[in-house]
Amino acid sequence: MPLPVVAIVGRPNVGKSTLFNRLVGKKLALVDDRPGVTRDRREGDATLLGLEFKLIDTAGFEDEDAQSLPGRMRQQTEAAALSADVALYLFDSRAGVTPLDETIAQWLRSLDTVVIPVANKAEGKAGETGIIEAYALGLGDPIPFSAEHGEGLVDLFEALRPHIEREEEYPDEPEDPFADGPLKLAIVGRPNAGKSTLVNKMLGEERMITGPEAGITRDSITIDWQWKDRDVRLIDTAGLRRRAKVEDKLERLSAADTRHAVDFAEVVVLLLDATRGLEAQDLRIASDVIEEGRALMIAINKWDVAENPSGLLNGIRGALEEGLAQVKGLPVITVSAFTGRGIDQLLETAFAIREEWSKRVSTGQLNRWFERALEANPPPAPGGKRIKLRYITQARTRPPTFILFGNRVDELPESYRRYLVNGIRKELGFGGVPVRLTMRASKNPFGNK
């Protein structure tokens, strides 16, 4: 389905091409202080905080004879506005509303196209009078904006979203673009946890040297392999001890190589020794993996010789919940590198959490959840001053990263941030993968007035 179309219209030299360049992310349109630089329509694919649409930059609208060059340019602008889903009517708030602005507004009111008035050059206080004057144009509330500095993007997003977001363009469960690529799976853990033995069992051959001595593996070894016709890039790593205990230069290099392997991986398996349980060093390794944004799962090896397995499993899960507050619900799998027990379940889980780690949620679905979350538990009002959270967008995947826009977000308590992150995991299907949430204040220059 074609993208929604948004046209930028306005008189000459109000900043249309500057806005066009900002939204398409490239300097495609020439920009100069002289009026009339843009003559033909220019199109580009634009993205605004998750919204995608086709953007049209138009020539400055001038009230001239239709046969003249300015008149022919105006015809191009009129055609663009008529074919668009939304017209952004840009005016110079510092210059105020001119007679030509009033003419353009009158023409726009006669169209079926949705019109959003945008008060450009509104940084500082110089544009306040022009914004007040614009209410008389009969096009609704003008959006204070600065195409030059990018201020007002939040307000523009909120105004555009109801008119151009279409559910069929944003399926609830977007396909994982990495689903057909090899799963990059790293096995990490303390020395002698059985990492190389597990890799050998997976491969069905003695590919890695193993033995009772700790620290046999020194380099991270990458092996391309297939499991049930699915490609896996398996990475065996050197054991990680507490840094304070690492004195040998070669062991320091091996540890650095392991950390590099974690950076390369998509999913990291932290292998525990069932005969030793969960130790402080395991939590440090897990925390480092999460900090790097990798999808993490726990595998408890030597399960075939574990004592009191039920109590051990519950104890490890409880310690993980307490010791890794930044991620809840990590997958915990029991395996035996000696017998091969649990290896299929480990790999099935690894593919599943990679899918969660790579998932993108549509802006519409995300903000519907966000509105429900705010309604169920509104943000606090420290000092009696209300914190206004405006909307949320997913900035990236792998790991899933979200940006929350609002006013006074720097005063939002950590407990409320955890409430939102846990809601994202639970309600939007991100399970135990690391979720990053960044706060960003809305840059509306009139937001506090």
TrEMBL record:
Which positions in this protein are listed as binding GTP 2?
A: 189-196, 236-240, 301-304
Keyword GTP-binding assigned to the entry: answer is: yes
Q: Which UniProt keywords apply?
A: GTP-binding, Nucleotide-binding, Repeat, Ribosome biogenesis
Q: Where is the EngA-type G domain?
A: 4-168, 183-358
Q: Sorted alphabetically, which PROSITE patterns does this protein's record hold?
A: G_ENGA (PS51712)
Family named by the database record: Belongs to the TRAFAC class TrmE-Era-EngA-EngB-Septin-like GTPase superfamily. EngA (Der) GTPase family.
Enumerate the NCBIfam families for this protein: GTPase_EngA, small_GTP
According to UniProt, the name of this protein is GTPase Der
